[in-house]
Amino acid sequence: MLCPNELSCQSIEPAPAPAVLIVGAGPGGLFAACELLRHGVKPRVVERRLAPHREPRGTVLQPAVMEMLDRGGLAEPFLRTGVHIRRLQLLTPDLQEIERELC
């Protein structure tokens, strides 16, 4: 085979998939892993705890998180099945109570 230059005759191998390590198997880490998988990247998730948490996690979803869930097609199930906060009760630094109805 005739080659115009040395580079054009070398075989081109596909680049290996990027290596991604996600530290923490909480809501953020697992969602990141799912998003990477959706885009063809296989991550590795590590978690230091051997058993699941017994405390609530992800009890409040910030607007930016909702936008990410929406891009993944998951916002609607969260909104449909989530608990909606209807009343807010706070304490000021001097322990005065503030209550607000939200809807």
Keywords for this structure?
103 residues; two-stranded antiparallel ribbon; alpha+beta; 17% strand; two-stranded parallel sheet
Low-confidence stretches: none
DSSP helix count?
3
Shape summary: elongated
Q: Provide the domain count.
A: 1
For the secondary structure, the number of strands is 4
Computed structural class? alpha+beta
Strand content: 15-25%
Distance between the termini: 76 Å
**Percentage of residues assigned to helices:** 25-40%
Oligomeric nature of the chains: single chain
Mean pLDDT score, rounded? 83
Written as H for each helix and E for each strand, in order along the chain, the element string is EHEHHEE
Please compute the radius of gyration using only Cα atoms: 24 Å
Biggest sheet descriptor:
2 strands, parallel
Order of strands, main sheet, comes to: 1-2
Descriptive account of the structure:
- The protein has 103 residues and is of the alpha+beta class.
- The protein has one domain.
- The protein contains three helices and four strands; from the N terminus they run E-H-E-H-H-E-E.
- It has a two-stranded parallel ribbon with strand order 1-2. The chain has a two-stranded antiparallel ribbon with strand order 3-4.
- Strand 3 and strand 4 form a beta hairpin.
- The longest helix has 12 residues.
- The termini are far apart.
- 0% of the residues are buried.
- The model has no long low-confidence stretch (mean pLDDT 83).
